[in-house]
Task: inverse folding
């Protein structure tokens, strides 16, 4: 099943989905008897991959919806805001160098500080186009491993936060169902196999809910988005350095040709 996912989808979409629905998966694994392959086993075998794939798709959609809300609360996309003159994440000289580089790539003059003040929306449009160029040209995970890693971390946290409420709802459902079945069965007998299984699922759901409430937070997503945005902008250094090396090589080559011509 995992082979159909690329590295990003596997780590940033499937893993959060698995973590979010793991109480349901645990319930299927624990409560269903696998000693003999019957109808319930066949249904569970089919349901598990379907449930995981569905959760991965929902994770992406809820994560993207959450992303827009976070950008509004942060005052814009981090890769955009970090290029603004008013932002102090990067020093002024570095931002000026990055603006000039991006300007040469997208064929649009970089806004001045006054132009940014007068028309922030137009300036942000330039920064957005520059960020788009960087994202399109840094997709090679082997050439930009740190950037890819930060992107995966951000995607994982964003999608998991998007699934937080559905996961807590699923936990609540599992708890209610287990308590209802235990109540209908009467006295809790720890020697009874079904009762033990129900108690395990109940404990698992409670522990999972505690983890989702305490470890999955908006702050962790914001931190990851800012780290990724900073690394994305720092990738300009790779391109700028490559251009400098190419220019120096061309200059050296022309110098050798002139010397050879003069010597002949």
Result:
């Amino acid at each position: 099943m995992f082979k159909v996912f690329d590295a990003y989808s596997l780590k940033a979409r499937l893993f959060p989905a698995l973590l979010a629905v793991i109480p349901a998966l645990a319930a299927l694994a624990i409560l269903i008897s696998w000693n003999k392959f019957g109808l319930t086993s066949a249904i569970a075998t089919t349901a598990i991959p379907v449930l995981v794939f569905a959760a991965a798709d929902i994770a992406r959609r809820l994560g993207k919806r959450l992303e827009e809300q976070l950008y509004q609360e942060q005052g814009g996309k981090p890769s955009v805001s970090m290029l603004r003159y008013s932002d102090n994440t990067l020093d002024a000289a570095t931002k000026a160098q990055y603006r000039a580089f991006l300007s040469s790539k997208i064929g649009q003059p970089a806004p001045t500080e006054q132009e940014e003040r007068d028309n922030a929306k137009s300036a942000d449009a330039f920064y957005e186009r520059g960020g788009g160029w960087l994202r399109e040209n840094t997709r090679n995970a082997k050439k930009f491993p740190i950037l890819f890693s930060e992107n995966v971390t951000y995607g994982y946290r964003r999608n998991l936060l998007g699934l937080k409420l559905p996961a807590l709802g699923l936990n609540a459902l599992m708890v209610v169902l287990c308590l209802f079945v235990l109540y209908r069965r009467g006295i809790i007998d720890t020697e009874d196999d079904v009762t033990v299984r129900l108690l395990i699922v109940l404990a698992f759901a409670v522990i999972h809910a505690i983890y989702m409430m305490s470890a999955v937070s908006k702050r962790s997503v914001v931190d990851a988005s800012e780290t990724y945005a900073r690394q994305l902008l720092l990738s300009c250094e790779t391109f700028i350095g490559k251009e400098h090396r190419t220019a120096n090589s061309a200059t050296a080559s022309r110098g050798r040709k002139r010397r050879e011509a003069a010597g002949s």
